[in-house]
Design a protein that fits this description.
Elements lengths: L7 H34 L5 H12 L1 H15 L7 H30 L8 H11 L1 H43 L1 H16 L3 H20 L5 E3 H19 L3 E7 L7 E3 L3 H12 L7 E10 L2 E8 L8 H4 L1 H14 L5 E6 L5 E8 L5
Parallel strand pairs: 2-4
Antiparallel strand pairs: 1-3, 4-5, 5-7, 6-7
Protein backbone atom coordinates (compact mmCIF):
# COMPACT_ATOMS: atom_id res chain seq x y z
CA UNK A 1 0.00 0.00 0.00
CA UNK A 2 1.04 3.58 -0.51
CA UNK A 3 0.89 6.46 1.91
CA UNK A 4 0.75 9.81 0.19
CA UNK A 5 0.08 8.35 -3.23
CA UNK A 6 0.90 10.21 -6.40
CA UNK A 7 -1.87 11.61 -8.57
CA UNK A 8 -3.57 9.07 -10.82
CA UNK A 9 -1.65 10.21 -13.89
CA UNK A 10 1.75 9.97 -12.21
CA UNK A 11 0.78 6.64 -10.63
CA UNK A 12 -0.13 5.23 -14.05
CA UNK A 13 3.13 6.55 -15.52
CA UNK A 14 5.12 4.91 -12.70
CA UNK A 15 3.39 1.57 -13.40
CA UNK A 16 4.27 1.83 -17.09
CA UNK A 17 7.90 2.59 -16.23
CA UNK A 18 8.05 -0.43 -13.92
CA UNK A 19 6.56 -2.65 -16.61
CA UNK A 20 9.04 -1.46 -19.25
CA UNK A 21 11.89 -2.02 -16.77
CA UNK A 22 10.60 -5.56 -16.21
CA UNK A 23 10.58 -6.30 -19.95
CA UNK A 24 14.11 -4.96 -20.39
CA UNK A 25 15.37 -6.89 -17.37
CA UNK A 26 14.06 -10.27 -18.56
CA UNK A 27 15.82 -9.71 -21.86
CA UNK A 28 19.14 -8.40 -20.60
CA UNK A 29 19.76 -10.17 -17.29
CA UNK A 30 19.68 -13.78 -18.61
CA UNK A 31 21.81 -12.75 -21.58
CA UNK A 32 24.40 -11.13 -19.32
CA UNK A 33 24.45 -14.16 -17.01
CA UNK A 34 24.87 -16.55 -19.94
CA UNK A 35 27.63 -14.39 -21.41
CA UNK A 36 29.53 -14.25 -18.11
CA UNK A 37 29.21 -18.00 -17.69
CA UNK A 38 30.41 -18.63 -21.26
CA UNK A 39 33.33 -16.24 -20.79
CA UNK A 40 34.32 -17.83 -17.48
CA UNK A 41 34.29 -21.36 -18.92
CA UNK A 42 36.28 -20.48 -22.08
CA UNK A 43 39.58 -18.70 -21.25
CA UNK A 44 40.23 -18.04 -24.95
CA UNK A 45 36.98 -16.09 -25.38
CA UNK A 46 36.79 -12.36 -24.77
CA UNK A 47 33.92 -10.88 -22.77
CA UNK A 48 32.85 -8.82 -25.79
CA UNK A 49 32.62 -11.97 -27.91
CA UNK A 50 30.63 -13.75 -25.18
CA UNK A 51 28.23 -10.83 -25.00
CA UNK A 52 27.83 -10.89 -28.79
CA UNK A 53 26.96 -14.59 -28.61
CA UNK A 54 24.54 -14.53 -25.70
CA UNK A 55 22.83 -11.15 -25.33
CA UNK A 56 21.05 -10.83 -28.74
CA UNK A 57 19.16 -14.16 -28.52
CA UNK A 58 17.90 -13.44 -25.03
CA UNK A 59 16.45 -10.12 -26.16
CA UNK A 60 13.56 -12.20 -27.55
CA UNK A 61 12.19 -12.28 -24.01
CA UNK A 62 11.41 -8.57 -24.33
CA UNK A 63 8.78 -9.59 -26.86
CA UNK A 64 7.70 -12.71 -24.95
CA UNK A 65 7.33 -11.00 -21.56
CA UNK A 66 4.13 -9.00 -22.34
CA UNK A 67 2.38 -12.21 -23.43
CA UNK A 68 3.49 -13.97 -20.22
CA UNK A 69 2.28 -11.03 -18.12
CA UNK A 70 -1.11 -11.12 -19.86
CA UNK A 71 -1.30 -14.86 -19.25
CA UNK A 72 -0.44 -14.37 -15.57
CA UNK A 73 -3.33 -11.92 -15.24
CA UNK A 74 -5.69 -14.28 -17.07
CA UNK A 75 -4.61 -17.37 -15.11
CA UNK A 76 -3.35 -16.14 -11.71
CA UNK A 77 -1.61 -18.55 -9.36
CA UNK A 78 -3.81 -17.58 -6.44
CA UNK A 79 -4.75 -19.79 -3.53
CA UNK A 80 -8.16 -20.65 -4.97
CA UNK A 81 -7.13 -20.92 -8.64
CA UNK A 82 -3.56 -22.21 -8.85
CA UNK A 83 -4.56 -25.81 -9.57
CA UNK A 84 -6.42 -24.76 -12.72
CA UNK A 85 -3.81 -22.17 -13.73
CA UNK A 86 -0.63 -24.18 -13.20
CA UNK A 87 -1.07 -26.54 -16.23
CA UNK A 88 -1.60 -23.51 -18.46
CA UNK A 89 1.67 -21.98 -17.30
CA UNK A 90 3.55 -25.28 -17.72
CA UNK A 91 2.44 -25.49 -21.36
CA UNK A 92 3.12 -21.78 -21.92
CA UNK A 93 6.60 -22.09 -20.40
CA UNK A 94 7.43 -24.97 -22.74
CA UNK A 95 6.10 -23.05 -25.74
CA UNK A 96 8.13 -19.97 -24.76
CA UNK A 97 11.28 -22.08 -24.37
CA UNK A 98 10.84 -23.60 -27.84
CA UNK A 99 10.06 -20.22 -29.41
CA UNK A 100 13.12 -18.71 -27.75
CA UNK A 101 15.32 -21.60 -28.88
CA UNK A 102 14.11 -21.14 -32.47
CA UNK A 103 14.82 -17.41 -32.31
CA UNK A 104 18.25 -18.02 -30.77
CA UNK A 105 19.21 -20.44 -33.55
CA UNK A 106 18.05 -17.97 -36.18
CA UNK A 107 20.05 -15.12 -34.57
CA UNK A 108 23.19 -17.22 -34.25
CA UNK A 109 22.97 -18.38 -37.87
CA UNK A 110 22.60 -14.76 -38.95
CA UNK A 111 25.41 -13.41 -36.73
CA UNK A 112 27.73 -16.42 -37.13
CA UNK A 113 27.11 -17.98 -40.56
CA UNK A 114 30.12 -20.32 -40.12
CA UNK A 115 28.19 -22.48 -37.59
CA UNK A 116 27.76 -26.17 -38.55
CA UNK A 117 24.84 -26.87 -40.82
CA UNK A 118 22.51 -28.68 -38.39
CA UNK A 119 18.82 -29.34 -39.13
CA UNK A 120 16.77 -26.60 -37.43
CA UNK A 121 14.58 -29.04 -35.50
CA UNK A 122 17.64 -30.76 -34.07
CA UNK A 123 19.30 -27.46 -33.18
CA UNK A 124 16.14 -26.09 -31.54
CA UNK A 125 15.76 -29.28 -29.47
CA UNK A 126 19.37 -29.10 -28.30
CA UNK A 127 19.06 -25.43 -27.33
CA UNK A 128 15.70 -25.95 -25.58
CA UNK A 129 17.16 -28.74 -23.44
CA UNK A 130 20.39 -26.85 -22.75
CA UNK A 131 18.68 -23.73 -21.49
CA UNK A 132 15.58 -25.41 -19.97
CA UNK A 133 16.40 -24.45 -16.38
CA UNK A 134 17.23 -20.84 -17.24
CA UNK A 135 14.09 -20.57 -19.39
CA UNK A 136 12.02 -21.83 -16.45
CA UNK A 137 13.63 -19.32 -14.10
CA UNK A 138 12.99 -16.46 -16.51
CA UNK A 139 9.36 -17.49 -17.06
CA UNK A 140 8.78 -17.90 -13.32
CA UNK A 141 10.38 -14.51 -12.66
CA UNK A 142 8.08 -12.79 -15.14
CA UNK A 143 5.00 -14.47 -13.65
CA UNK A 144 6.11 -13.59 -10.10
CA UNK A 145 6.78 -9.97 -11.10
CA UNK A 146 3.37 -9.76 -12.80
CA UNK A 147 1.67 -11.05 -9.66
CA UNK A 148 3.64 -8.65 -7.46
CA UNK A 149 2.65 -5.68 -9.62
CA UNK A 150 -0.99 -6.82 -9.68
CA UNK A 151 -1.05 -7.27 -5.90
CA UNK A 152 0.51 -3.86 -5.43
CA UNK A 153 -2.17 -2.26 -7.61
CA UNK A 154 -4.87 -4.27 -5.81
CA UNK A 155 -3.53 -3.17 -2.41
CA UNK A 156 -3.57 0.47 -3.49
CA UNK A 157 -7.10 0.02 -4.83
CA UNK A 158 -8.20 -1.63 -1.58
CA UNK A 159 -6.66 1.21 0.42
CA UNK A 160 -8.58 3.67 -1.73
CA UNK A 161 -11.85 1.82 -1.12
CA UNK A 162 -11.20 1.79 2.63
CA UNK A 163 -10.57 5.53 2.56
CA UNK A 164 -13.75 6.01 0.55
CA UNK A 165 -15.75 3.91 3.03
CA UNK A 166 -14.38 5.96 5.90
CA UNK A 167 -15.19 9.21 4.10
CA UNK A 168 -18.69 7.94 3.32
CA UNK A 169 -19.20 7.13 6.99
CA UNK A 170 -17.89 10.53 8.03
CA UNK A 171 -20.06 12.17 5.37
CA UNK A 172 -23.10 10.44 6.89
CA UNK A 173 -22.12 11.60 10.36
CA UNK A 174 -21.26 15.14 9.27
CA UNK A 175 -24.09 15.51 6.79
CA UNK A 176 -25.80 18.83 7.60
CA UNK A 177 -29.24 17.20 7.80
CA UNK A 178 -27.95 14.47 10.10
CA UNK A 179 -26.15 16.98 12.32
CA UNK A 180 -29.15 19.29 12.29
CA UNK A 181 -31.45 16.51 13.47
CA UNK A 182 -28.98 15.40 16.14
CA UNK A 183 -28.37 18.91 17.45
CA UNK A 184 -32.10 19.70 17.25
CA UNK A 185 -32.82 16.62 19.35
CA UNK A 186 -30.15 17.75 21.83
CA UNK A 187 -31.71 21.23 22.02
CA UNK A 188 -35.12 19.68 22.72
CA UNK A 189 -33.58 17.67 25.55
CA UNK A 190 -32.00 20.84 26.95
CA UNK A 191 -35.32 22.74 26.82
CA UNK A 192 -36.97 19.85 28.61
CA UNK A 193 -34.33 20.11 31.29
CA UNK A 194 -32.95 16.65 30.54
CA UNK A 195 -29.32 17.68 30.68
CA UNK A 196 -28.04 14.17 31.28
CA UNK A 197 -29.63 12.89 28.06
CA UNK A 198 -28.26 15.87 26.11
CA UNK A 199 -24.76 15.22 27.41
CA UNK A 200 -25.04 11.53 26.48
CA UNK A 201 -26.15 12.47 22.95
CA UNK A 202 -23.20 14.82 22.47
CA UNK A 203 -20.88 12.18 23.89
CA UNK A 204 -22.28 9.65 21.40
CA UNK A 205 -21.66 12.04 18.52
CA UNK A 206 -18.11 12.70 19.66
CA UNK A 207 -17.53 9.01 20.29
CA UNK A 208 -18.75 8.12 16.81
CA UNK A 209 -16.27 10.52 15.23
CA UNK A 210 -13.47 9.29 17.51
CA UNK A 211 -14.09 5.65 16.62
CA UNK A 212 -13.99 6.55 12.92
CA UNK A 213 -10.63 8.23 13.27
CA UNK A 214 -9.16 5.62 15.65
CA UNK A 215 -9.66 2.88 13.04
CA UNK A 216 -8.37 4.98 10.15
CA UNK A 217 -6.11 2.97 7.87
CA UNK A 218 -7.07 -0.44 9.31
CA UNK A 219 -8.47 -2.89 6.76
CA UNK A 220 -9.98 -5.21 9.38
CA UNK A 221 -10.96 -4.82 13.03
CA UNK A 222 -12.45 -6.99 15.74
CA UNK A 223 -16.21 -7.45 15.51
CA UNK A 224 -16.48 -6.00 19.02
CA UNK A 225 -15.13 -2.66 17.80
CA UNK A 226 -17.41 -2.70 14.77
CA UNK A 227 -20.42 -3.31 17.03
CA UNK A 228 -19.36 -0.44 19.30
CA UNK A 229 -19.28 1.88 16.30
CA UNK A 230 -22.73 0.76 15.16
CA UNK A 231 -24.13 1.15 18.69
CA UNK A 232 -23.07 4.81 18.74
CA UNK A 233 -24.61 5.36 15.33
CA UNK A 234 -27.93 3.79 16.38
CA UNK A 235 -28.03 5.75 19.63
CA UNK A 236 -27.94 8.93 17.58
CA UNK A 237 -30.56 7.65 15.16
CA UNK A 238 -32.83 6.97 18.13
CA UNK A 239 -32.78 10.70 18.86
CA UNK A 240 -34.37 11.16 15.44
CA UNK A 241 -36.81 8.24 15.45
CA UNK A 242 -37.45 7.97 19.18
CA UNK A 243 -39.58 4.98 20.12
CA UNK A 244 -40.15 4.22 16.44
CA UNK A 245 -36.69 2.66 16.20
CA UNK A 246 -36.12 -0.55 18.06
CA UNK A 247 -32.78 -2.35 18.09
CA UNK A 248 -32.05 -5.98 18.89
CA UNK A 249 -28.58 -7.49 19.05
CA UNK A 250 -28.04 -11.25 18.89
CA UNK A 251 -24.29 -11.84 18.96
CA UNK A 252 -22.49 -15.02 19.94
CA UNK A 253 -19.79 -13.96 22.48
CA UNK A 254 -17.35 -16.27 20.74
CA UNK A 255 -17.52 -14.05 17.63
CA UNK A 256 -16.55 -10.77 19.32
CA UNK A 257 -12.87 -11.30 18.57
CA UNK A 258 -13.54 -12.30 14.95
CA UNK A 259 -11.87 -10.17 12.32
CA UNK A 260 -14.23 -8.25 10.01
CA UNK A 261 -13.68 -5.54 7.39
CA UNK A 262 -13.54 -2.08 8.92
CA UNK A 263 -16.85 -0.21 8.52
CA UNK A 264 -18.65 -3.32 7.26
CA UNK A 265 -21.79 -3.15 9.41
CA UNK A 266 -22.43 0.60 9.38
CA UNK A 267 -23.62 0.83 5.74
CA UNK A 268 -25.75 -2.29 6.24
CA UNK A 269 -27.39 -0.78 9.33
CA UNK A 270 -27.75 2.57 7.60
CA UNK A 271 -29.61 0.91 4.74
CA UNK A 272 -31.81 -0.99 7.20
CA UNK A 273 -32.79 2.28 8.89
CA UNK A 274 -33.19 4.21 5.65
CA UNK A 275 -35.09 1.64 3.58
CA UNK A 276 -36.78 -0.24 6.39
CA UNK A 277 -37.97 2.51 8.72
CA UNK A 278 -37.82 5.91 7.07
CA UNK A 279 -41.23 7.09 5.92
CA UNK A 280 -43.14 4.80 8.29
CA UNK A 281 -45.37 5.99 11.11
CA UNK A 282 -45.34 2.65 12.93
CA UNK A 283 -42.43 1.45 15.01
CA UNK A 284 -39.77 -0.67 13.34
CA UNK A 285 -37.02 -2.98 14.43
CA UNK A 286 -33.41 -3.41 13.29
CA UNK A 287 -31.79 -6.68 14.32
CA UNK A 288 -28.05 -7.30 14.20
CA UNK A 289 -26.80 -10.86 14.60
CA UNK A 290 -23.44 -12.63 14.50
CA UNK A 291 -22.99 -16.38 14.82
CA UNK A 292 -20.33 -18.96 14.26
CA UNK A 293 -21.05 -21.75 11.78
CA UNK A 294 -18.04 -24.02 12.11
CA UNK A 295 -15.13 -22.16 10.50
CA UNK A 296 -17.45 -19.46 9.11
CA UNK A 297 -18.66 -16.19 10.64
CA UNK A 298 -22.23 -15.30 9.68
CA UNK A 299 -23.40 -11.70 10.05
CA UNK A 300 -26.91 -10.44 9.39
CA UNK A 301 -28.67 -7.06 9.57
CA UNK A 302 -32.44 -7.27 9.34
CA UNK A 303 -35.27 -4.76 9.30
CA UNK A 304 -39.03 -5.38 9.39
CA UNK A 305 -39.93 -2.80 6.76
CA UNK A 306 -41.67 -3.26 3.43
CA UNK A 307 -38.89 -5.37 1.96
CA UNK A 308 -36.40 -4.65 -0.82
CA UNK A 309 -37.62 -2.77 -3.85
CA UNK A 310 -37.10 -4.26 -7.29
CA UNK A 311 -33.46 -3.94 -8.34
CA UNK A 312 -32.36 -2.66 -4.92
CA UNK A 313 -29.71 -5.37 -4.52
CA UNK A 314 -28.14 -4.46 -7.86
CA UNK A 315 -28.18 -0.74 -7.11
CA UNK A 316 -27.61 -0.61 -3.38
CA UNK A 317 -25.87 2.77 -3.30
CA UNK A 318 -22.25 3.65 -2.69
CA UNK A 319 -22.10 2.04 0.75
CA UNK A 320 -23.20 -1.41 -0.39
CA UNK A 321 -21.03 -1.20 -3.53
CA UNK A 322 -18.03 -0.61 -1.26
CA UNK A 323 -19.05 -3.56 0.93
CA UNK A 324 -19.22 -5.86 -2.11
CA UNK A 325 -15.91 -4.67 -3.57
CA UNK A 326 -13.97 -4.82 -0.30
CA UNK A 327 -15.26 -8.28 0.56
CA UNK A 328 -14.20 -9.46 -2.90
CA UNK A 329 -10.70 -8.07 -2.36
CA UNK A 330 -10.20 -9.21 1.22
CA UNK A 331 -11.77 -12.66 0.88
CA UNK A 332 -11.88 -13.62 -2.81
CA UNK A 333 -13.96 -16.74 -3.31
CA UNK A 334 -14.37 -17.20 0.46
CA UNK A 335 -17.31 -14.94 1.28
CA UNK A 336 -20.97 -14.39 0.46
CA UNK A 337 -23.00 -11.19 0.53
CA UNK A 338 -26.68 -11.01 -0.27
CA UNK A 339 -29.71 -8.78 0.24
CA UNK A 340 -32.94 -10.75 0.34
CA UNK A 341 -36.49 -10.59 1.63
CA UNK A 342 -36.65 -11.56 5.30
CA UNK A 343 -39.09 -14.24 6.46
CA UNK A 344 -42.20 -12.51 7.73
CA UNK A 345 -41.41 -9.25 5.92
CA UNK A 346 -38.57 -6.78 5.67
CA UNK A 347 -35.07 -7.16 4.33
CA UNK A 348 -32.03 -9.02 5.59
CA UNK A 349 -28.42 -8.41 4.55
CA UNK A 350 -26.31 -11.53 5.09
CA UNK A 351 -22.51 -11.75 5.05
CA UNK A 352 -20.41 -14.86 5.59
CA UNK A 353 -16.64 -14.75 6.10
CA UNK A 354 -13.89 -17.13 7.16
CA UNK A 355 -13.72 -17.03 10.96
CA UNK A 356 -10.33 -15.47 11.70
CA UNK A 357 -9.33 -13.91 15.00
CA UNK A 358 -8.20 -10.31 15.39
CA UNK A 359 -4.89 -9.85 17.23
Amino acid sequence: MHLGRCPAGNDGYARRVRRVALYLAVGLVPGLLSAIQMWALDPGLTLAAALAWQVPPWLAWIALAPAVVALAHRFPLERTRWRASLPVHVVACGAAAIAHAAFSWWVWRWIHPFLPDVPPITAIGILARKFALLELLVYASVVAAAHALAWRVAAAELEGRLARAQLDALKTQLHPHFLFNTLHAVSVLVRKGDGDAAVRALADLGGLLRLSLDAAGEQEVALERELAFVARYLDLEKLRFGDRLGVAVDVDPDTLTARVPNLLLQPLVENAVKHGLAGRTAAGMVTISAHRRGAVLELAVRDDGAGPASGWERAGGVGLANVRARLARLHPGRHTFALEPAPGGGTVARVTLPLERAP
